[in-house]
Amino acid sequence: MTEQKQSPNSRPYRMQRRAEQVDETRQRIVDAAVHLHGTVGPSGTTIAGIAAAAGVTRLTVYRHFPDDLALYSACSAHWLSQQVVPDPARWEQYADPAERLRVGLADLYRFYRDGQAMLLGVYRDKALLPEAIREAIDNDDRAFREFLLAAFDVDGEKERRLRAVIGHATSFWTWRSLTQGLTDDEAVDAMTTLILAT
Amino acid sequence: MTEQKQSPNSRPYRMQRRAEQVDETRQRIVDAAVHLHGTVGPSGTTIAGIAAAAGVTRLTVYRHFPDDLALYSACSAHWLSQQVVPDPARWEQYADPAERLRVGLADLYRFYRDGQAMLLGVYRDKALLPEAIREAIDNDDRAFREFLLAAFDVDGEKERRLRAVIGHATSFWTWRSLTQGLTDDEAVDAMTTLILAT
DNA sequence: TATTCAATGAACAGCGCCGTTCCATCAAAT
DNA sequence: ATTTGATGGAACGGCGCTGTTCATTGAATA
């Protein structure tokens, strides 16, 4: 790198190694926040707690994330980036309703199991999350439901009932409840049976 | 309910009309607390809020209910006293598993619907409730599950699966989830089908 | 070497809740 | 008429959290 001597008055400042350290600090904050969300849950997570866990001052947290939404967005993006997210597009090849159901629910339940610590807190405290985050969650849930429903050729009353039951089957709480005593596979079987019998 | 005390010097003091007023105050507090639990939920209910709603001082609330458990117990007892509580004993005449299931779930779901405002908050904030209250809730839930299970003549693996599925069917959250799009009757049908297919 | 700037550390004011104290009030009971 | 006791009213100290200011540190940078 070539250097130039400058006069004391006004020189642009291009950070390089410095920028990395800043990002590291930011990352430590996000990691701490994600960890807390997954243990004490969003409702038990405080700025002070995050700062302490990140080995940083409250003020530093505020500077990186001016408001809750900024922090939650960063957390959610980072956490999702290290999950294998269920992907309806990959279920598309299964045209048979029953088969798509099995594959889709299995994919969903695997995701639920892998991320249960975080999801438990998130769904419990959903009402306390920033509006935008809540909407994102609802949208995803709706997408899974509608995608599974789309494999069926129904309308009217039957469609309404199917949508309700599929919505139930795809709910995190349903997975949670069923797997108190069932394996994931058994839960998939149970819900598939239920839906096909509707 | 209210006791008399003796002062060294004389005159026993038996309250009569007075005692009624005390009980009225106590009742106003309980009513206010129940109302708040059913609207903002236990987690949003504060002593200050109860006092304000009851038209009483915080101090008066503390005097009637020294700790949370005393208050919650009184609330729960009073609320339950004005509910038609599901009663497994009345399901006993139905020996046929399918029939007992329908009757039991219908009774349970009716109770859930009638008390949904309160139950929503209670189940959401269950972790914050006093230990004793939480145990009472868990015991009731377990009782319903086991009573429905008892109609089946099963054991081993099948019993485990049945217990899990019946537990799921009897959960408040399951009722809540299903009745987003189904009627109570349809929900009973769905869960009965699910259980009988297990 | 002099400059830049992320991060620190300390303090502030504010909020709402907690549980407790002391004293005054006033109707009911004797 | 006097005593009793439930309630009111006001204040206290404590807690933990919020979001903000200010001056300082110290390492990366030019």
Automatic annotation (TrEMBL), chains A, B:
List the InterPro entries. Homeodomain-like_sf, HTH-type_TetR-like_transc_reg, HTH_TetR
Q: What would you give as a GO molecular function for this chain, any one?
A: DNA-binding transcription factor activity
Q: Which SUPFAM superfamilies does this UniProt record tie to the protein?
A: Homeodomain-like
**Stretches the record annotates as Disordered:** 1-21
Compositionally biased spans, kind Polar residues:
1-10
**Any signal peptide, and if so, which residues?**
none
Q: Which residues bind DNA?
A: 46-65
Recite the UniProt keywords alphabetically. DNA-binding, Transcription, Transcription regulation
Which domain of life does the UniProt lineage start with?
A: Bacteria
Q: Which PANTHER family match?
A: HTH-TYPE TRANSCRIPTIONAL REGULATOR BETI, HTH-TYPE TRANSCRIPTIONAL REGULATOR RUTR
Q: What is this protein called?
A: TetR family transcriptional regulator
Source species of the chain: Kribbella caucasensis
